[in-house]
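Intended use. Records like the one below are meant for learning the mapping from a protein sequence to its folded structure. Do not use them to infer anything beyond what is encoded.
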Amino acid sequence: MFQDKLFSRKPVISLQVTLILVFLFIGSIPVFIGSSVLLGAFRQNLIDSRMQEIQNQCWILSNKMTRIGYLTMDPKDSLLDNEMAVKADMFNGRIVIINKSFRIISDTFSLSAGKTNVSEEVIRCFNGENSSKYNQEKKYFSLTIPIYSNSEEKEIDGVMIITASSEDLLNRIVTVSDKGAFLQLLIISILAIVVVLLVKLLMKPFRELQRMLNRAAEGNIDEDIISRVYKETRQISDSINTTLKKLKAVDKSREEFVSNVSHELKTPITSIRVLADSLIGMEDAPVELYREFLSDISEEIERENKIIDDLLALVRMDKTAGANLNVAQVKINGLLELILKRLRPIAGKRNIELTFESMREVTADVDEMKLSLALSNLVENAIKYNIEGGWVRVTLDADHKFFYVKVADSGIGISEEFQERVFDRFYRVDKARSRETGGTGLGLSITKKIVLMHQGAIKLQSKEGEGTTFTVRIPLTYIS
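Structure written out for the chain above:
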């Protein structure tokens, strides 16, 4: 199984190697295309030049034949025959002379003299259409040149057919091609060196960024990671610094949480110990005093138990996230009415008016027990941290996607500097008053956790001395 995972792991591709290969590929394309175009142009130029040279030489030969009346001579001019043979050897080819009767009267190869040639090219040449072509497959030139009569009318009396090999040209092209390949290799080698140096220069900011990340991985998270060379490195370094700040905040929060847990658990135990030591140190204490002290001890034990229960609830929610939500269709109006009915006695003791306003009937997919706990915490806090004779208003509304629960009070309010931390575990704005009201500092943390488990959000609006409003938004349909 381990081997399967090992071999199924995707290979890691180096950005530096990828850039080098891409730049080399892009840089090599013009080199290969350019060399191919140049070699093709050179080849075509050689062929055109050779064909033009053959044509010029043969026109000179044709003019000489016209001047001396070569076609009607018998015997033929030996000097002109020798010149024709030399030109044929010079072009590594063959020259054939045909008269008006389409009979071959001269052949530098001495193979076809006296035979007849009625080819298409010959007929066209007699009609005044010269031809010149190159057979790439068989690698030879073929030309037809007219031979005129020596009269003033310039009638075509004969045709000169020239065939010439291009083997020597192809050998020159191969030589040039070999030199071109060597030049290509040299250019690509230089290009590779330039590309490697360029990519190393381009990658330098990323290597510097990696070095700073390695230092952070070793524990130096207090150093800012700064790389401003490229827009991308700036964005990466900004994201990493933001992440490090969050990690520092989480680490600080964890330390504070551990400290707060220790303090909160120790406080009731210290009170119990003081009360117990006081009882032990009293001789013949009256029964009423015993009952009073034991009642205080019982309250401290109950407080300790509540802290432990709240901590366990948070731990369970942290571990399971939304996995253990018992989601069902619940009428939110009825749920809120039940919560307010349960809390009215507490509000009545302080003469606080508790009202509920529903804009419409709302049914949503929620975990009834957990949501009831979250909303109860909000309403109970609104009652506890209120003024005598104040008010608490709970409002329910909904749209096509969410329902909204707003809990507003006329209480003491929360200063703006403390608003970001009210959802932190064990954080309390007024610690003395929290202990008087029996708060553990975990209620809002539990509430926020439950709201997030329902894929919702909670928002706080408050002004010191003017009251507080919590707004909960939760989707009507839970998507697992």
